[in-house]
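Contributing new records

If you add data, match the layout below exactly. Sequence lines come first and carry their own label; structure lines follow with theirs. Keep one chain per record. Anything else will be rejected by the validation script.
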Amino acid sequence: MIPIYEQGQGKGIGHSSKTLSARFADLCEEHLSQGRAKSFAFIFYDFLDRGFQRVLRDQGVFAQIDRLSGSNLSVFYLHSGGKATVDRFNSEFLSRLGLSGHALFPCVVFFKLSDKQITDVTAVHLESADVVHGFHELQSVISEYISESSVTPVPQSKSWRWIKSTTQFIGIEAFRAALKVALSGII
């Protein structure tokens, strides 16, 4: 998992909002070329959802999800920021990813990168906010995506409602520019 911090780089893991917005395209390309990821994901949540914030901040959850995603998936999430920043981040990205009005919070949005284009954008809504159930749900969704995405771009599960983006592809540089705008309040 790759947290996005308001300032600095945390404790050696993650990126500041400034470095991520400047290097997003390069970072994704590096993860692909170095075999660190085959796909990517962003976790979106409501700033007022304290239960889900606890899920993301729990070190045990972080370690387990990081191990599970391994070299298959790089997972980004906004670790800090005020309500306005989180709202802007959510709004900008869900709009750019063609999911505005379709995805509910909290959710995980998965995507792939091919020829400098973001493709195969899908999202799944998470329902559990407490640490134990929220972790299990997050772990299950990521596990299913990893196992199913090699077969089909949009997993076909009876357990989860997968939402396919209305956008066919998004240029990585356009997405990076959107990232810079979305994080402008904390850069």
